[in-house]
Amino acid sequence: MQAYGPGFARLYNTKWHGFAEQVAPLIETFFAAASMGRENKSILDLCCGTGQLARHFLEKGYRVTGLDLSEHMLHYAIENARSYVESGQANFVRGEASRFVFEERFGLVISSYDALNHLENEQALRSCFECVHAVCDTCFVFDLNTRTGLNRWNRVNIDDSSEDTFVITRGHYDGEGDKAWNTVTGFVRLPNGVYERCDETAFNFVFDLDAVKNTLLELGWKSVHFARIEELNTPISEPENEQRVWIVASK
């Protein structure tokens, strides 16, 4: 899994925090309705990025640990949740999603914004699932881009909707291989008015969803289903037809 640099982390914190802010309330509502959501209010935000999802749960009274490989992403996560870090309600640590250990047990583990697609192969994903299973008491919720969804990367997109940022993305996926690639060139205006440039190429590994489900069940999860974010309790029958699918694994 790649660790993003300082320029990309700044761009991400400025431009792409909206996804986490959109999905966090829906995940929190789903978890709060479960009995363990009232008993174990501790969350592991796996591949936490710049911390906007973590901040939502912190504001709702949960304890949150965020883990990310990028020290630059963690810098913003800590700043975005500074008061909670200082009070001890939040903790952000650097680590690899497929190799981590915590003594704490978490009621809920979340990974969002197709972060686990950045794992390099099926073995790395299995290792991630093993790590999660060891620290999770109840539920693991994460999303993946599907093969259908990754076909949308085959384009060039220019986003000049903000005076503070300018972003060009160039994606490539042949529809059949194991990886899709997305090259980002971004400019972010700094406080002194100068624009900082960043260049980053990210990949998404294409995981077979039946294999994902079977691996989770093999590792001891009692139930696994695919869903849309708006209805995490409702299984869908054709997840490969979705552009992005959410996986809910429960003990």
List strands and helices in order, with pairings:
Blueprint: H1 6-15, H2 18-32, H3 35-39, E1 42-46, H4 52-59, E2 63-68, H5 71-80, H6 82-87, E3 90-94, E4 106-111, H7 122-135, E5 136-145, H8 147-150, E6 156-159, E7 165-172, E8 179-189, E9 195-205, H9 209-218, E10 223-227, E11 244-250
Parallel strand pairs: 1-2, 1-4, 2-3, 4-5
Antiparallel strand pairs: 5-11, 6-7, 7-8, 8-9, 10-11
Helix pairs in contact: 1-5, 2-4
What does this structure look like?
This protein is an alpha/beta fold. It has 2 domains: 6-146 and 206-250, Vaccinia Virus protein VP39 (Rossmann fold, 3-Layer(aba) Sandwich); 149-205, Single Sheet (N-terminal domain of TfIIb). 33% of the residues lie in helices and 31% in strands. It contains 9 helices and 11 strands. The strands form 2 sheets. A 7-stranded mixed β-sheet has the order 3-2-1-4-5-11-10. Helix 4 links the parallel strand 1 and strand 2. Helix 1 (6-15) runs parallel beside helix 5 (71-80) and helix 2 (18-32) runs parallel beside helix 4 (52-59). The radius of gyration is 18 Å and the shape is globular. The two termini are 27 Å apart. The mean pLDDT is 94.
